[in-house]
Amino acid sequence: MSPHHAVQILQHELLNMKSSASTFASALADIAEIKKMLAPPGGLADSSLPPEVRLNQIEIRFTDVVEQLNSLDNVYNRQVTTLQDRIGDLENEFNHMVQKVKLGLPAGDASSMEGQGMSEMHSKLMELQEAMTNMTGTAQKLMDERDERQHALDVMLEQVELLKTVKADREDLEDALADKADACQINKKVSLEQFDAACGDMSKAIEEALTKLTQQENLWSQALDDIQKDVGNKLDRMELTPLRDFINKKLKNLQEKFKALSALKKDAEAAGTRSRFLKNVNCISCDKEVIMRKEVDSSLYPKPYALPPTRSMGPYLAYELDQLRKQQKCVPASKNLNAFENAMQSARSAKSPDHICNRYCGGSHTVTTPQQRVTRIGHFLEQWGPEIGPANDMNIRGTDGQV
């Protein structure tokens, strides 16, 4: 075998190895797709679905994944075995070629072209060896990943078996749910505790109502007794008519008296006059014809002056001493000479006859001091004259409601 032919064989084997590497890459892509298929949609499982539906979905997905993994495992095993066989054949051929080169080419006899071809072949072989080491590393990684996938599948199988043992089947669950009552029917039912509490509340309410009814009955009976007493104290209709006649008679008599009094005052009286003086009036003291004012003009009288203020106790002391003197004069048992003389004169005057003298119009007895003077306001008839108010006839309602 010539070196050129050996190099072509090596190139062909390298192409086969590249194709096997591409198959490994496709296997890795298939494994990534399996991961995506195993992952739940949306990143999380739909918790709104019932557990039976979710369990069925997981079982279907698990069976599909197991089938895909089995098929990929078979393909991977076949490709790995073929790759190992090719690598073994390539190593055998390479060793055989090296031995042939060593046997066919003695040292120092090769030409420069053959030496250059051998060096190129050696470099290619080294590159091929590096590629082989890389391929073995990738194959080892793929084997490790395969073991991890297998371990994950075993764990998933154990979990599925556990779910099969723990979870109930759909038929069993449907049978159990068929025997159970609906939530609406359960909500309509009442527990014993609620029933007892409701009965206790009803009994308390009934007792309170009974107590209130008894109290109301007592109040009604008391009110009825009061009404009966009031009715007993009231007059009957037979007694009311004579009383009404008596009152009407009294009212008629009063009306007749008022009519008689009003007949006495039929003289026409003026509502008012323009003159401020009363003429043709005789004085009480001198019996002369004088004029009297109807209204008092306050401007005619001088304004009283105020006394000067003082802080001394003299006036008060003088007043008190004067009161004491008057009191001592009036006391009969005192040893006052003035009191004795007054007593003697009173005894003499009692024995003397009555004294007769003329009474003059003027004098001290006709003079009135400002303290004794009374200011008249308006007409004297308005101050001291008789005032008879009009009598009004009206109906009066009593406390019993009768008119």
UniProtKB/TrEMBL annotation:
NAD among keywords: no
Taxonomic classification: Eukaryota, Metazoa, Ecdysozoa, Arthropoda, Hexapoda
Entry superkingdom: Eukaryota
Sections of the chain in a coiled coil: 125-183, 244-271
InterPro entries linked to this entry: DUF4795 (IPR032013)
Key words, A-Z: Coiled coil
The UniProt record lists the keyword Coiled coil: yes
Residues annotated as domain DUF4795: 114-316
Name the UniProt record assigns to this protein: DUF4795 domain-containing protein
